[in-house]
Automatic annotation (TrEMBL):
Lineage, top ranks: Eukaryota, Fungi, Dikarya, Ascomycota, Pezizomycotina
UniProt name for this protein: FR47-like domain-containing protein
Signal sequence residues: none
PANTHER family linked to this entry: GLYCINE N-ACYLTRANSFERASE-LIKE PROTEIN (PTHR20958:SF6)
Superkingdom of origin organism: Eukaryota
Record-linked InterPro entries: Acyl-CoA_N-acyltransferase (IPR053225), Acyl_CoA_acyltransferase (IPR016181)
Biological source species: Aureobasidium pullulans EXF-150
Extent of Polar residues compositional bias: 116-130
SUPFAM superfamilies hit by this protein: Acyl-CoA N-acyltransferases (Nat) (SSF55729)
Region (Disordered) location: 116-135
């Protein structure tokens, strides 16, 4: 397993391009940047010396690791068997070894606290999710439990085939609830220019103001930190009343650190007006270009979203945007000391 310098990220991006859209989460995370002193790149192949588009015939795995992000996603992975699964099982022993080797390297990665990290206790912006939809208490317990155990690592948007390997190796931390919850990976083809929609009369676009982060976090089960929200592209919708614009948004959405459509929400009284679709198109048209190359290839012009299998309303939004469900991904916690 190679530990490679972050300045080789462009070589990795170019090398992974033929594996789009399967590797899109890691691909976009690398493009997003905002790396910290604790950010690391690990790879089973030295892609910096490989010809662009030349993929090894044997199994490979690569990962971006940043443990200062905990308890949010710390690891993003792409592997050969996710994009092109061999017809037989002869590759499984080697894949097992690669996954073990990667987790051993991750276990050595130092957690370097950021000035605003909850580990230091110097920033109170990290708050637990509100108790919404009846799940909040479980999420808060797991959030705190994760923070208190540095051996636990959260791997995000992990392809189902890699999750199967982790399960077979007995590396999932069974003390956490939800590792078996699948999310549908929707891919949006943006090769045609995205045109944002006009809003109904009385509504205007804007951005999410930091003063409203508390509201945003209260409407999601997913723990969000202010330090992360500040980095993310956002679009909000505000209601105009009596000739003035309300100071609090009635709908909002973000592009995550992997450029996924995330934290999309419309307040209850304003649903049914198509605002979620309008928000999504506005995010795509205004902000996806920041991730693409100056002259993007067709393979570059994808967006994506991860939707819980029981979230029919979000699935409907994705379908209305022309999204197609490609595969399942998981957010899983692993005790790297067991690797």
């Amino acid at each position: 397993m190679f530990a490679l310098p972050l300045d080789s990220k462009q070589a990795l991006i170019q090398w992974l391009n033929p594996c789009l859209p399967t590797c899109i989460a890691l691909y976009r995370r690398l493009q997003f940047g905002h790396f910290t002193p604790g950010s690391r790149l690990f790879s089973s192949v030295d892609f910096t010396i490989l010809t662009h588009g030349k993929v090894p015939s044997s199994p490979w795995i690569v990962a971006f690791v940043d443990r200062t992000c905990r308890p949010e996603t710390e690891v993003w992975i792409a592997a050969s068997w996710e994009h092109d699964t061999p017809a037989d099982d002869s590759w499984l022993p080697q894949a097992d070894d690669l996954v073990r080797s990667l987790l051993k390297e991750i276990s050595k990665a130092e957690i370097i606290p950021q000035a605003s990290s909850p580990i230091t206790g110097s920033d109170k912006s990290t708050s637990l999710p509100a108790d919404t939809n009846g799940y909040g208490s479980v999420d808060r317990d797991q959030y705190e439990k994760h923070l208190m155990n540095e051996k636990v690592v959260l791997l995000g948007a992990v392809h189902s085939s890699t999750v199967a390997i982790l399960k077979r190796l007995g590396l999932l931390d069974s003390s956490f609830v939800g590792s078996d919850i699948p999310y549908q990976k929707y891919i949006f083809d943006l090769r045609n220019d995205v045109v944002p929609r006009s809003l109904p009369p009385g509504f205007v676009y804007g951005k999410v103001d930091p003063k409203d982060y508390g509201l945003v976090k209260s409407r999601t089960q997913i723990p969000r930190q202010d330090r992360t929200l500040r980095k993310l592209p956002s679009v909000a919708i505000y209601h105009e009343q009596g000739g003035s614009t309300a100071s609090t948004p009635i709908a909002w959405g973000f592009l995550g650190v992997d450029a996924s459509l995330t934290t999309l929400h419309v307040e209850k009284d304003y649903r049914g007006l198509g605002l979620a679709k309008s928000l999504s198109l506005k995010l795509f048209s205004d902000h996806m270009g920041a991730y693409w190359q100056h002259n993007p290839s067709d393979e570059e012009r994808y967006a994506h979203a991860d939707v819980a299998t029981d979230n029919s309303s979000s699935q409907g939004v994705c379908k209305s945007l022309g999204g197609n469900w490609y595969f399942h991904v998981f957010w899983i916690r692993v005790d790297v000391s067991q690797a």
